[in-house]
Amino acid sequence: MLAFIVRRLLQASAETLDTPLVRERLEAVGVTVIPPDRRSPDYLARFIPAEIEKWGAPIGASGTTAD
After folding, report:
1. Tens digit of pLDDT for each residue in 32-42?
2. Which pTM value belongs to this model?
3. Positive or negative CA dihedral for 54, 55, 60, 66?
4. φ, ψ of residue 40 in degrees (nearest 5)
5. Pairwise CA distance, residues 45 & 33, whole Å
6. How confident is the model at residue 55, as a pLDDT?
7. How far is the C-alpha of 15 from the C-alpha of 33, rounded, in Å?
8. Of 15, 22, 23, 26, which residue is least crowded by CB atoms under 10 Å?
9. Which residue from 46, 28, 29 is spatially nearest to 37, judged by alpha carbons?
10. What is the residue extent of each domain of the chain?
11. What gap in Å lies between CA 47 and CA 24, rounded to an integer?
12. Which of 23, 21, 39 is nearest to 31 (CA)?
């Protein structure tokens, strides 16, 4: 059931973002609308681990903490 809800929300938000008027208004206030190929749960599932791998070592080396 949750997967259905997520898919439906993804579809509704994609349809909204692809509406020219919505896109124009968002861009007018400085929002960059993400391209359709970067809006899926599959993309996010690949992107997050890649970013953790990319930035993990430099952040760790800097001594930065979450505090």
Report:
1. 999 999 988 88
2. 0.61
3. negative
4. -90, 155
5. 19
6. 94
7. 12
8. 15
9. 46
10. 2-61
11. 27
12. 23
